[in-house]
């Protein structure tokens, strides 16, 4: 088993706290300027951003979709220079979605997020749900 240093865990925990608080500036402060973000659904990339500005737009838009959201990291793994965080997710919608979910509906799922840290900043986030 590979050791995950406390500094790396602290960076990721701080990012998750900002995410849960809908604090986009707090999230952005932790990101490498060349951040690569990907969201996978059913094994397919359905969202991808490159760089802080694209990520900021996506993050700002997603804060409008949820009245509250919470990621809880339930386990950690270090794999090939990346950190895998196993996550329980819960969100309450603030708007109606095209898939039939409506404002006030609660979404719950389990997934994982993969992070890479470079130069003390998060340079990769891959979400799998």
Automatic annotation (TrEMBL):
It comes from the Bacteria. Residues 13-123 form the SnoaL-like domain. This is Nuclear transport factor 2 family protein.
């Amino acid at each position: 088993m590979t050791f995950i240093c406390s500094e790396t865990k602290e960076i990721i925990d701080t990012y998750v706290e900002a995410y849960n608080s809908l604090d986009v500036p707090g999230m952005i402060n932790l990101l490498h300027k060349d951040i690569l973000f990907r969201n996978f659904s059913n094994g397919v990339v359905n969202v991808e951003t490159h760089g802080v500005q694209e990520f900021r737009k996506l993050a700002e838009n997603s804060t409008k979709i949820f009245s509250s959201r919470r990621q809880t990291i339930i386990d950690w793994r270090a794999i090939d220079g990346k950190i895998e965080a196993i996550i329980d997710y819960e969100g309450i919608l603030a708007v109606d979605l095209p898939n039939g979910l409506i404002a006030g509906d609660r979404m719950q799922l389990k997934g994982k997020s993969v992070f890479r840290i470079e130069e003390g900043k998060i340079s990769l986030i891959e979400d799998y749900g």
